[in-house]
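Practice problem 4.
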């Protein structure tokens, strides 16, 4: 199903419809400040399994948070990392941090780190706030022939609408991925250049 949720003043009714699906082991596609992404509730083992089948088992998912306080509940954040996160979030970044025990093993695989995001898109953050827990997330796969399949909600619905519970139309996305930065070893190491310029 396709629903329109505006970034400014998102509809509480529509948010709750999407949240109800997430709370019932659902997988949704939602807007971020880069590409659209698959998302499920971090507390849903079945949802994580479904997301990994959609994206591919080798994919390392990330977590999307509403704020920095929530990040600290799931990841080890030292003072240096906190300062970097505070300067750059919300924004088009994925920061790799050491995971705490609250992160499900199913989301981690054999790793001890997890990517964290606080997108500069009001709908993404509103979903996490309404759900009351982070989203396990993975960007839609690239399509070199038709890149709009990662950015245009109607085309995304055409391709994935039967495989997910909701596609949330939050406006056009951006085909450029997030900037990926590893903070797990102390020093910030840029692993992938993307939309964000590190401050």
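Answer key:
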């Amino acid at each position: 199903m396709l629903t329109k949720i505006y970034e400014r003043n998102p509809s509480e009714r529509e948010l709750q419809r999407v949240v109800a699906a997430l709370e019932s082991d659902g997988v949704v596609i939602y807007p971020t400040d880069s590409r659209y992404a698959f998302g499920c509730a971090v507390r849903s083992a079945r949802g994580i399994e479904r997301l990994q089948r959609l994206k591919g088992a080798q994919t390392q998912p990330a977590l999307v948070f509403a704020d920095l306080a929530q990040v600290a509940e799931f990841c080890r954040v030292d003072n240096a990392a906190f300062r970097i996160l505070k300067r750059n979030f919300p924004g088009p970044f994925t920061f790799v941090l050491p995971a705490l025990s609250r992160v499900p093993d199913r989301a981690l695989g054999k790793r001890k780190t997890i990517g964290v995001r606080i997108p500069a898109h009001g709908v993404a953050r509103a979903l996490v706030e309404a759900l009351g827990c982070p989203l396990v997330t993975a960007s839609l796969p690239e399509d070199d022939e038709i890149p709009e399949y990662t950015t245009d909600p109607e085309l995304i619905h055409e391709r994935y609408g039967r495989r997910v519970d909701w596609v949330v139309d939050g406006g056009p996305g951006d085909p450029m991925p997030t900037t990926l930065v590893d903070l797990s070893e102390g020093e910030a190491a840029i692993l992938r250049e993307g939309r964000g310029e590190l401050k």
